[in-house]
Amino acid sequence: MKAVLKDREAHAFADLSRDQLLAVHRCMLLSRKLDDKEIQLKGQSQIFFQISGAGHEAVLVAAGVTLKPAYDWFFPYYRDRALCLQIGITPYEMLLAAVGAKDDPASGGRQMPSHWGHPKYNVVSGSSPTGTQVLHAVGAAEAGVIYSRVPQIPDRASRYHDDEITYVSLGEGATSEGEFWEALNVACTKHLPVLFLIEDNGYAISVPVEVQTPGGDISRLVRGFPGLHVDSIDGTDFFDSLRAMREAAAYVRARKGPALVHARVIRPYSHSLSDDEKLYKPTAEREAEARRDPIARFSEFLKSNGVVTDDELAAMAADVEREVNEAATKALAAAKPSKSSAELWVYSPDVDPTSTAFDTPARPEGKPDTMVEAINRTLKDEMARDPRIVVFGEDVADASKREALPLVKGKGGVFKLTHGLQRLYGDDRVFNSPLAEASIVGRGVGMATRKLKPVVEIQFFDYIWPAMMQIRDEMTMMRYRSGNTWSCPMVIRVPIGGYLRGGGPYHSQSGESIFAHCPGVRIAYPSTAVDAAGLLRTAIRCDDPVLFLEHKHLYRQTYNKGEYPGKDFTIPFGRASLRREGDHVLVVTWGALVQRSLLAAQQAEKDHISAAVLDLRTIVPYDWDTIASHVKRTNRVVIAHEDQVMCGFGGEIAARIAGELFEHLDAPVRRVGARNTPVAYHPDLEEAILPQSSDILKAIRDTARY
Ligand SMILES: Cc1ncc(C[n+]2csc(CCOP(=O)(O)OP(=O)(O)O)c2C)c(N)n1
Hints:
Bound molecules: thiamine diphosphate
Strand content: 5-15%
Number of helices: 25
Structural class: alpha/beta
Mean pLDDT: 97
Largest sheet: 7 strands, mixed
Low-confidence stretches: 1-5
Strand order of the largest sheet: 10-9-11-12-14-13-19
Shape: elongated
Distance between the termini: 96 Å
């Protein structure tokens, strides 16, 4: 062991025992052999996808031995096989994912292999978009901080550790995603305990790092972030990696701020099995990479320092091979998910927001108030009831500067929906976010995976689009893709819609049908103050992500005011409200078109046409049974919504009526909605574009007279 001591002097952190050194080597080897096995199985069509962690093993084992499973939080990249092995995920479990087995702990056969997830070790389910996970990690780190600061949360002691770390990794290519910069922004602004590992293998599929990053060196770019510990290392050198990970982890555990380790690694196996790197990487470059292979380097170190002999290494390799083969045989024989389970886990199996449990009586309190008041009071009451609720978004706080708070009335949202919440519940639970919508939703996802209840605001529906990736690929899919082991129930409140006389193309948008196309999210769209209170409470108390659409034009109308229905008033989702009785024509509608439909129905009465008006109240789920029962009665139906007719949600309802109720129809289903243009600024243009009462009246008349 003398030689080991000699090299230990060269490696300041080589304080590992022989057994530990061998364990490091074994873990790297196991990772590589698992990749090799999967590649073989893919060649035999026994698995359906493979992406390897080859070349990244040294820095990942170093991360694994530094971090604490089931204590720290993990958001690993798809290259992180060696880290996941090191923290406890077994080869068998990994191969269960590869074969898509029913009992694969990462996803139950729903997500590709190497998209890690394991509740036992705090490894949160990973998706495929490069970069989204970075915001989840920030949210998860924030959750730990919130648990530490909000003593009212009853079970908080079991939910965080004072010195916990949230680990997140990504490739150098993924650092080009805006979400990476949004995440760094928040992590540094809030001094969050996040450890970013950038695994820089020089290529994002075929795109070299110098095309990706100015100067080809991401750590150089991020050194200016205040409070960020930055280290740049050779990630194929285990000892350099261990030193860097230990220093970074110590910095984060000591709550000095976030840390970023930039590790240069290699990628010897092409991007994935669908890629052939020989197409863009010259032979000399590939040979130079091979000389830096972390496993070869480490075994060379072990041998040259007399830690192991060639025979011992060969025996270890054989043992690893045996372990991998046994795990593969077992995984190949494992039960596959049944076809009948395909629809499981889109929504929570535990809480059904359509159930009668959410059908509670209103206990009206005081004089009628606007929808703004109703929502504000509901938020206040729910936050008092559940200390896990956190509210954040752009301008939602009363005043971010604490010293200003006693001196001012407070902002509380551009529409005042969150006014007074910060004053009541403090700035750990109510705070402004940077102007970055993906960050708002992505952080919410991370917090919700740790069982906080984010109720976030996107300031205008027109600006929800930067968050679309987080909504569509993360928030709505987390439960499904993880086989119900992870979920992110949260509420996104969004002011929506037009009729503002001057709102223009970017303050008037509708588009609920776009989100209705995303399985996993519920969509509420109230038209009255009382419904807003009841539906928002259901949204908050249910176990699914909810998009809560608040029509700006309805916020302060008099016709939809109502008495606050009390602290426990909930309305089940999927239950429409008949706003007006009628026998000849049914108008199915929601949002701002409810009032316009009522006015149209009143006018139609003059022509002796009796039109019923049904307010859906929720779009997902929508109340098909009630629609059907009225269509069977009136045999004539108009669907009226503010969104464009083209691909509007009315198209879905019309198709279903045509498909399932054809025999009951005495007239074609008519749709009323906006023209297929953006909403223009001049009020005359706006009026021409958005559907008016007169349009609905015409549709009612045409349908009645058909
Ligand atoms: C948002 C998004 N865009 C594109 C892709 C397709 N894609 C998958 S991996 C990848 C390259 C990622 O490169 P890098 O982050 O450097 O990681 P590496 O694969 O090199 O480890 C691309 C473009 C994706 N998964 N997600």
